[in-house]
Write a structure and sequence with these properties.
With 213 residues, the protein is mainly α. The protein contains ten helices and no strands. It has one domain: MFS general substrate transporter like domains (Growth Hormone, Chain: A, Up-down Bundle).
């Protein structure tokens, strides 16, 4: 309803601006940022698919696991707003490097904890790490690519994980058990860290098109 009533209208172009000018290729830094976000989305989907199942199979009880999921939903109300408040105060690059490491650690705890308390604590904040980190990631991509094409691909970045995560997770759990998800998260999140390392420290201005990071 809001979109129908108040959808933003593009600014009118001046006479000196050419319409339909072809856009150049995205820089390597942008592609690495896209790859890093996609890797984190894959871990998010792979783990979340088995978040309830691993708790039930460990004997924590349906009521306790349901309580964890409710807590997770409440916690998820805050990371986006917190990221918006801290965007100008915290280094986006540092957040992007710490986020995948923290995500991998949480997956390891969730999938390997024999007791309820560590599982519950890690599961309650698991999704919040992804939300907080990719908010900084999208801000970085917006600065690197003023054309907006990278941010327009946001659904593709996230749905990449949503499509592959359950299949990959199910295969690993079926063949190697829940613990294998922790190892897979470590490997994939290391790839995300590598990708984010390829983003230059100064992202206030966009990189020239075609200049490697």
């Amino acid at each position: 309803m809001v979109s129908a009533l108040a959808f933003p209208v593009p600014d009118a172009l001046g006479e000196g601006h050419a319409r339909g000018a072809p856009a150049g290729p995205l820089s390597r830094a942008v592609w690495f940022g896209v790859a890093g976000v996609a890797c984190m989305g894959l871990i998010q989907s792979m783990t979340f698919s088995f978040l309830e199942r691993v708790g039930t199979d460990r004997g924590f009880g349906l009521q306790a696991v349901t309580g964890v999921l409710i807590a997770l939903g409440i916690v998820n109300l805050f990371p986006s707003a917190l990221a918006a408040l801290l965007e100008k105060r915290w280094s986006a690059r540092r957040v992007l490097l710490v986020g995948p490491v923290l995500q991998a650690l949480l997956v390891g705890v969730i999938m390997n904890s024999p007791t309820f308390a560590p599982y519950a604590a890690a599961a309650a904040v698991f999704a919040a790490v992804m939300i907080f980190t990719h908010t900084f990631g999208f801000g970085t991509l917006a600065r690197l690519d003023p054309s907006g094409r990278a941010l327009a691909a946001t659904p593709a970045m996230l749905m990449f994980g949503a499509a592959i995560g359950p299949i990959l997770g199910g295969t690993l759990v079926k063949t190697l058990g829940y613990g294998s998800l922790g190892l897979a998260a470590l490997v994939i999140d290391l790839l995300a860290v590598f990708a984010f390392l390829r983003i230059p420290q100064q992202t206030g201005a966009a990189l020239p098109v075609g200049v490697p990071a």
